[in-house]
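Obj: model holo form, ligand = zinc ion.
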Amino acid sequence: MKRVRVAALGLLLVLAARLSVAGDAPAAKKNGEQKPIWEGTWDNKKVDASIRSLIGAVDAERMKKSLFYLSKDPLPFRKVNYTLPGHKKSTLYEADDYLAGRLESWGYRVEREGVRVQAFRRDTRKPKHAQYSRPMPEDPWCTAYNLYAERKGRSKPQEIILAVAHKDSQSWVDSPGANDNAIGTVSVLEIASVLARYPSERTIRFLFCNEEHIPWTSVTAAQNAKARGDNLVAVFNLDGVGVKSAEQTAAGKKINVTAYTRPEGERLAELMAAVNLRFGIGLEQRSVKRPGPGDDDGSFVKAGYAAAVINIGSWPYADPNYHAEGDIPERCDVPNAAKTVQATLAAILTLDQSP
Ligand SMILES: [Zn+2]
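Output (holo structure tokens):
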């Protein structure tokens, strides 16, 4: 689910143009402002070398394997309301088992948090990308799970950096949901894979949630984090990474938009632009201010975590197959997503190593 609608495209383009930060240079510093903390962090040659080595370990082929597993074969969907013929579990539960299995194979302990949800109904009178409609009270309720894994920090375990992606596909339509959001799911999975043996200073947490059923399970995740008193110092939501218009695809663009809601998120967007340059990742990177909290990062903003952003390929979301049957893994730009993973990973590592 993405809140930006095609109907608002014109207005949003104007807003985005006015509010975006230049893509190919770190945001200009205002008078009297200190230099960004990350520049000092990178002055440490060991830290710089460690970030370069870890982002070099991002493996697009490994991402592609999981992408096809989760959005084609053996799982055509990830829906709590769809079970493959002859199978005992819903395709969403089978996706959970796959993700947990991968994480456990890398040494993580996986925790599940159940949330009661309903599938959306479908209203075919609405535009194709927006045919989800509220379920009725009598529609069945199911449990959808948030999956968590984490690296516990050595020196500052109470400070938590969170990477999140919604793992479910659209409950109201038979779309594989490859770009929305198997690609973000395998991106967070890839970050977890690369960091499996990384001795972090802060806690680095991974959350796989559900956002194509209602309510969104990231709301529960964010509220429970707040209730526990978790100190989430940064939240990176990966949703629709590398997704772009047909024209941008034809032009071979490798792009990322970091959208933020609050000034604390703007700082993370500046960091995304800075790592892209520093580590030669090669994305066309730009920042956008959201009109208000949205998507799974919005769940965290609403719960009081201001340092929350989304990394997404295009803004407004430009996938011609958005929420449609044609959202298939063959149409995902995995090399673009791998670059976004590298940049997100570099940002996470920079925050982790900062004083
Ligand atoms: Zn969606």
